[in-house]
């Protein structure tokens, strides 16, 4: 059985020409990098390294600890805290590969640094509505993850022989994390054809699952227990749920980066819940927003309209600069405005 070949040949030709021409490549991905952001970036990193390029992965801030085992995660340049060396890498780039985000404003100061440079910018991403800042755009919302697209690009450029064991591990991690271990956004047969290829490269899929998902500290287990017992609010009338965690609560449970990853999905396990919202007060007065839905409830519209954000229809995010009380007020307004969509 063959993969559906949906990436335009002209895009692959453009990328091939850029890759032939340049020696210094900088790969960029989004803030609060997840398994797909880091997995797809490192897969492409290993590919270009093998082609003899000088490659840097630059991320706006640090990835969670449960991803630090990914091959070459230690080579990533984190802009926050290393502004000078990250800027130096950016200024030396002959081309940028922008992975798992669809507009430069999603990568904060890094985006500002990059946008003024007259250097080719290649987008490889699966979020809808990409901006027009990119010279080449491999943009496919139908893909389960950016990692899937990076796999396809590598194979289109150099064949399956170019997919090393390290690349295979990175690709699998991206596909697995963006689909909740193949529980959603994962109904296309191609996903499993690609996984078969990755298994042939020697990946241990069960081990990767454990490395990513069975990596909790006791304090994370306690935090999740606390949230489910005391902090999960169910708005039955609206088929919706809300979780809030204040900065104080995060401190009290010694929450580390990544400890709340996936928490927003929990309420969707309740019968009837179609929409889940999680407010995490990262810093006093700065609230990170995560939204999840099932079926056709448009999280990304809600994120853009109420939370200065965006994303996919069923998984979006944003942020608010206000108190938790005001944020909860905003959530109530969302329920009011979308009550028809939530209850139909
Ligand atoms: P998460 O809830 O895991 O942080 O993010 C879920 C999805 O929403 C991801 O696809 C992510 O790229 C997108 N997302 C998260 N935060 C933002 C944001 O501030 N702006 C936009 N445009 N998308 C976001
Ligand atoms: Mn993704």
Name the average pLDDT. 97
Q: Helix and strand succession?
A: HEHEEHEHEEHHHHHEEHEEHEEHH
Number of domains: 2
The count of helical stretches stands at 13
According to CATH, the fold-level topology of the largest domain is: inorganic pyrophosphatase (n-terminal core)
Total strand count, please?
12
Helix coverage percent: 40-55%
Radius of gyration of CA atoms, rounded to a whole number: 20 Å
The proportion of strand residues reads 15-25%
**Ligand types:** guanosine-5'-monophosphate, manganese (II) ion
**What's the CATH architecture name of the largest domain?**
Alpha-Beta Complex
Pick out the low-confidence regions: none
Shape: globular
**In CATH, what is the homologous superfamily of the largest domain?**
inorganic pyrophosphatase (n-terminal core)
- Main sheet: strands, sense, barrel: 6 strands, parallel
Class by SSE composition: alpha/beta
Biggest sheet: strands side by side, in what order?
A: 3-2-1-4-5-6
Class of the largest domain, according to the CATH hierarchy? Alpha Beta
Instruction: Report the end-to-end length measured between terminal Cα atoms.
Output: 40 Å
How would you portray this structure in words?
There is one protein chain. By secondary structure, the chain is an alpha/beta fold. It has 13 helices and 12 strands. The chain folds into 2 domains: about 10-210, Alpha-Beta Complex (inorganic pyrophosphatase (n-terminal core)); about 220-344, Diaminopimelate Epimerase, Chain A, domain 1, CATH 3.10.310. It has helices spanning about 10-20, 35-50, 85-90, 110-115, 145-160, 165-180, 190-200, 205-215, 220-230, 245-250, 300-305, 325-335, 340-344, and strands at about 25-30, 55-60, 75-80, 95-100, 120-125, 135-140, 230-235, 240-245, 275-285, 285-295, 310, 315-320. It has a 6-stranded parallel β-sheet with strand order 3-2-1-4-5-6, with helices on both faces. A 6-stranded mixed β-sheet has the order 7-8-9-10-12-11. A hairpin with a 4-residue loop joins strand 7 and strand 8. Helix 2 packs parallel to helix 5 and helix 2 (about 35-50) packs antiparallel against helix 6. It starts with 8 loop residues before the first helix and ends with a helix. The mean pLDDT is about 95. The structure holds guanosine-5'-monophosphate and manganese (II) ion (MN).
